[in-house]
């Protein structure tokens, strides 16, 4: 639906929220709740929380756009009452002092409610009769930024999840030229069962998770978590994990420069790339020729570069398939390579290899066109 069907005052609130929110909130859907169905005045917000998300419905009234909205929380959060005990105008919360002409009001409300939700979850978990959980909370809360969530239901066991931010690093500054809008983070997700009595407590479920944009620099899936030793707590587990993680992050940042130098070393042989990733240096495309045959060479450099050689695809600029799409070679992953070679030697070997591959690719293109 077009944005012009949303009343201007509500549009201003939504736009300010999306552009200024310190976390990446999203509007999932919009609908009408008034007599005129052409006005969209209700929507669902998807809000990141504890490495997952929560969904809240925000309901304005298009017929009374100056009025404050209502916020409807999820069915599992019926006991979440952030403003319980507030007394109308004497309250300092955003809803009680709503100013529809101030477009930052919805933003302030959502930030305020999310902070209240974090406090609600901490209070809820603190009331659980589980000594192990209480000890975990007591030993971890000195760390800033920890979020926690207790899930329960008839079809699943009760468990508590902790989202623990790792490494006091400003990734946005460490990666030159990054356009990341939000601060990039790596978290350890720690999940404990609730209230069960064990002779020997089992280790929690552990998972390393990063903000999605950080995957262009570092793959948490490739990181091997250290072993959880019987009887340890999360506070004991974290120092070794962060030491290992810090070392690999430094290697990942160094890898950017290694990829950059490799791409630069190709320039004397292939000319300047016609397209390249200037931040992470993961991709570069060169226009090449072999006699009268002109073609593109697409290089893809993995996060494991230079330990892992580039993947290469050749693309003809003269041959097309029956759908008018340029002919490409299969992905080439086997080429002469050693991480110990200097950038110039890597480039020299690559030139020799591609000179022969170009002839084979030209034959392949000509055969396709003859079919």
UniProtKB/TrEMBL annotation:
Instruction: Give the record's family classification.
Output: Belongs to the BABAM2 family.
Q: What's one GO-annotated cellular component?
A: cytoplasm
Q: Mind telling me what this protein is named?
A: BRISC and BRCA1-A complex member 2
Q: What is the species of this protein?
A: Perilla frutescens var. hirtella
List, in alphabetical order, the GO biological process terms annotated in this UniProt record. Answer: cell division; chromatin organization; double-strand break repair
Check the record and name the InterPro entries matching this protein. BRE
Checking PANTHER family in the record gives: BRISC AND BRCA1-A COMPLEX MEMBER 2 (PTHR15189)
Tell me any Pfam family this protein matches: BRE
Q: Which UniProt keywords apply?
A: Apoptosis, Cell cycle, Cell division, Chromatin regulator, Cytoplasm, DNA damage, DNA repair, Mitosis, Nucleus, Repeat, Ubl conjugation pathway
| Locations listed in the record | Cytoplasm; Nucleus
